[in-house]
Amino acid sequence: MPASVRIKICGITRIEDALAAAEAGADAIGLVFYAKSPRAVSVQQARQIIAALPPFITTVGLFVNSNRCELNEILAAVPLDLLQFHGDENAADCEGYHRPYLKALRVKAGDDIQAQIDMYPSAAGVLLDTFVEGVPGGTGESFDWSLVPPRASKPIILAGGLSAENVGSAIARVRPYAVDVSGGVERSKGIKDEEKIRAFIAACKEISL
After folding, report:
1. Chunked in runs of 10, what are the mean pLDDT values of the chain (209 residues)?
2. Which of 6, 31, 85, 187 suits a disulfide with 89, CB 3.0-4.6 Å?
3. Does the entry feature the keyword Isomerase, yes or no (predicted)?
């Protein structure tokens, strides 16, 4: 585990929420380009949010089974630093965009997570989220953290049901490279709560020291 776990606030839809995350100490923000998500943003929204950010905040675009043409159009318009794939994409589907990528894996009992990680040798890291039938992510539910391999071959970004109340325990148990939160810092879907963001980040930093 790094001296300080990295923190991503995902599902940002408003400039004020992005700024609150940055000011509270987040390392990255996530923008959802998946029309079925209640946290989806348009290209115009994404451009405005990114333009308002201070320097050194990583901007992550989340995609679910997007076709290559659609994704390239978004990348031509939105200056994203990192791509996050939450669908059924194989490694080849995630490559070729001239940006590093994360592959999200939906974890359930009986999974061989390391074997799944090995299917994405070109990934910068792997995000572990909770498996819920028919839902690609953002479920607000946690999974059994004991399933995470202790010496995974890729940096682990832990997601799924995290909040200020449980993120310290999650970090202590999993020792991830980073944590990713969306619903756990919201007032309603897509609308973040500044106090919850601050509490979440404070809890991360307390356990990381």
Report:
1. 83 98 98 96 98 98 97 98 97 97 92 94 96 62 87 95 95 95 95 98 84
2. 85
3. yes
Question: Which domains does the chain show, CATH number per domain?
Answer: 6-208 (3.20.20.70)
Catalytic site includes residue 129: yes
Please identify which of the residues 17, 93, 94, 129 carries the catalytic annotation: 129
pLDDT of residue 135: 58
Tokens of residue 186, six digits: 């919201």
Q: What is the pLDDT of residue 1?
A: 44
The question of whether 93 is a catalytic residue gets the answer no
